[in-house]
Every structure is written in structure tokens, then in C-alpha cells.
Design brief:
The chain is α+β, with helices and mostly antiparallel strands. It has one domain (22-91): Ribosomal Protein L30, Chain: A, CATH 3.30.1390. The protein is built from three helices and three strands, in the order E-H-H-E-H-E. A three-stranded antiparallel β-sheet has the order 2-1-3. Helix 1 crosses helix 2 (41-54). The N and C termini lie far apart (40 Å).
């Protein structure tokens, strides 16, 4: 008798994105990227400039639960800091 291994499906991945606005300071966006996405200053600045010039930028790719948590953390932090920064997730 041959044992059949069940195939495990890889979880879906989600992109976490920051959206540009005219009010959130660039320094705050860099802080968010460092604090919640463990980016160094150089990587965070590069992403922030991409968001500034293109209107949107990717912070990272995660499983659903982690992406959802990151979006919530960023949105809560932005609101508490009185910034209108928007963070969203989309299926990759």
C-alpha cells in the first residue's frame, strides 16, 4: 500500500500598499515604514519617494492575517498621530 501525501496549498499573498495624500509629512511615512515594516532609513525613503511620485507604493507582501494586521496598525497609528495616511491591501 502506497501512502499518499496530501498536497498543502500555499496561502494567498497580499500586497500592503501606502497611498499618497497631500497632508501626511514624508517623515511620518518613513517612520511608519521603519516601525511597522522593519525597513531601514534608505529603503523607507525610497518607498516614500515612490509613493510621493506615483501615488502608491508597496510596503511588503504577506499572508492575509499579517497583511490585515499591518494595515490596521498603520491606520490606527496614523489616526492617533492625526494624519490622513491610507494603507490598504490587495491580493497579489
Amino acid at each position: 500500500m502506497t501512502k499518499v501525501k496530501p498536497k498543502t496549498k500555499r496561502p494567498n499573498l497580499y500586497r500592503v500598499l501606502i497611498l499618497n495624500d497631500d497632508y501626511t509629512p514624508m517623515e511620518f511615512v518613513v517612520l511608519v515604514l521603519e516601525k511597522f515594516f522593519q525597513k531601514d532609513v534608505e529603503a523607507a525613503t525610497k518607498i516614500m519617494l515612490h509613493v510621493h511620485h506615483h501615488g502608491i507604493g508597496e510596503c511588503g507582501v504577506f499572508t492575509y492575517e499579517i497583511a490585515e494586521t499591518k494595515v490596521t496598525q498603520v491606520m490606527d497609528f496614523a489616526r492617533k498621530s492625526q494624519h490622513p495616511l491610507q494603507c490598504v491591501m490587495e491580493k497579489k
